[in-house]
Amino acid sequence: MAQIEMNLRNELIEHLDAACDYVRSKLGGIEPKIGITLGSGLGVVAEQVENPLYIPYGDIPCMNRSTVPGHAGRFVVGTFGGKPVIVMQGRLHGYEGNTSQEVAFPIWLMHKLGVDTLITSNAAGAINESYNVGDLCIMADHINFTGRNPIIGSEPNDIAPRFFSMLNCYDPALRKLAHEVADAEGVSVQEGVYLGLRGPSFETAAEIRAFRAWGADTVAMSVCEEVIAARHVGMRVLGISLVSNVACGVGDADPCNEEVFETAFCAAGGFAKVVDGVIRTMPPVPTQE
Ligand code: HPA
Q1: Choosing a second label site near 120 at 20 to 30 A (CA), which of 2, 80, 166, 214?
Q2: How many angstroms is it from 270 CA to the middle of ligand 1?
Q3: 3-state secondary structure the chain
Q4: 270-286: per-residue pLDDT in tens?
Q5: Among 203, 209, 223, 246, residue to substitute to test ligand 1 (most atoms within 8 Å of Cβ)
């Protein structure tokens, strides 16, 4: 009997319910459909959210805190691009010691709150030699090299079916729109394949050569597990990297965290313009009959 009860309890769903009840109680009736995850150096973009409400991750039941300096570790809820948004000002990384489901937790939480579109971002190193530091790179696809997947286990299967397609996991229409907005705003933009790993060591030059041979254009330590979680529950996803550095061993590059933060921080204005324009012009997610 005890065993049956254990099997019937799903802690992930219970934890998401508790977190969702808490966050909803703070929103005063705002129902954002757009979630934005701000990566390293891009947290400054949250300052452009109008009428902001702040919800620190540490106050939310069952959600982990952010431990990385420069990642504020809070939700910012308000208006951006003329629409209600919920912004993650800082994310939870695998390299901080979070499990894959802990990394995915805020994504599932935003979905539970009614978010149907995720705009995710990070600072990334350029493997592609034609990219320039400061460019944006729209994610066309990804290679999940974290060695993990948040859907593993029985609990995520109770949220949504465990087997699902990752074809076009970065929404083609939103990618096209992001190009159009970037062109109109004069922001230099690339589109390429993103490779995500767990870090926190930067890659070796040999790894970067191998990743190039696999077809990767950019590399960083986030995004893939979140996007898998978002697609698991059917969210529409746009991913944008800010090219913060040239990847290890390309030319004589030897990236470091300070360079990543500084460049991303300085180029955040172009990123904000593109996200603002995309949100202003994107159509709502079609409702399914
Ligand atoms: N490698 C890994 N993660 C990163 C990089 C990089 O070059 N740049 C920003 N995040």
Answers
A1: 214
A2: 19
A3: CHHHHHHHCCHHHHHHHHHHHHHHHHCCCCCCCEEEEECCCCHHHHHHCEEEEEEEHHHCCCCCCCCCCCCCCEEEEEEECCEEEEEEECCCCHHHCCCHHHHHHHHHHHHHCCCCEEEEEEEEEECCCCCCCCCEEEEEEEEECCCCCCCCCCHHHHHCCCCCCCCCCCCHHHHHHHHHHHHHHCCCEEEEEEEECCCCCCCCHHHHHHHHHHCCCEEECCCHHHHHHHHHCCCEEEEEEEEEEECCCCCCCCCCHHHHHHHHHHHHHHHHHHHHHHHHHCCCCCCCC
A4: 999 999 999 999 999 98
A5: 203
